[in-house]
Design goal:
176 residues, Thiol Ester Dehydrase, Chain A, 5 helices, HotDog_dom_sf, THEM6_lcsJ_thioesterase
Length: 176
């Protein structure tokens, strides 16, 4: 089941925080509950993606993105994810989820997210999202401008650019 209470709590907390500029980190604090783990007693990799969602919604709330989506009849969708898992995350551990808007190109907005525990990074991801409307993908610069930010993207990290370029080589639909 989707953790609606966690999501609502994160969004309520984020409403009281200042809107960060693009690139500033939003921090969420979470605990791993028994319903978050898999048969190996680790944080389930699917739940990890869901917890990343919650962190992005906290940032979206702070930046006013959700209000702009609603006002313009736009929707957000995840268009790709690249994750690196490095440390085991188990039940009842306290985690810090760091989320930042890394930048955008002509089609996608890129977020960088990481789970930290006791000063050590456990998992790190790049998530690219698309804003869609009645006419297809909304240029990210247009959406960013509605927030009052400079529509020019900060420079994307080299590794995110390389991942994005690699995605253009990937066949769609898959060949099997």
């Amino acid at each position: 089941m989707y953790p609606v209470i966690r999501l609502a709590s994160e969004m309520a907390r984020a409403r009281n925080l200042l809107s960060p500029p693009a690139g500033e980190t939003h921090v969420s604090r979470m605990r791993v509950w028994p319903w978050d783990i898999d048969v190996f007693m680790d944080l389930n990799n699917g739940r990890l993606l869901t917890l990343f969602d919650i962190g992005r919604f906290g940032l979206f709330t702070r930046m006013g993105i959700l209000k702009q989506l609603k006002a313009n009849g736009w929707y957000g969708t995840v268009a790709g994810t690249c994750i690196r898992y490095r440390r085991r995350i188990t039940v009842f551990q306290h985690l810090e989820l760091r989320t930042r808007l890394a930048g955008w190109d002509d089609r996608f907005i890129y977020f960088e997210q990481a789970f930290w525990r006791d000063g050590e990074c456990c998992a790190h991801a790049a998530i690219r999202t698309a804003i869609t409307g009645g006419k297809g993908i909304v240029p990210p610069s247009e959406m960013i401008a509605t927030l009052g930010h400079n529509p020019a993207s900060p420079a994307l990290p080299d590794w995110i650019e390389a991942w994005s370029e690699a995605e253009t080589l990937r066949p769609w639909p898959p060949a099997f």
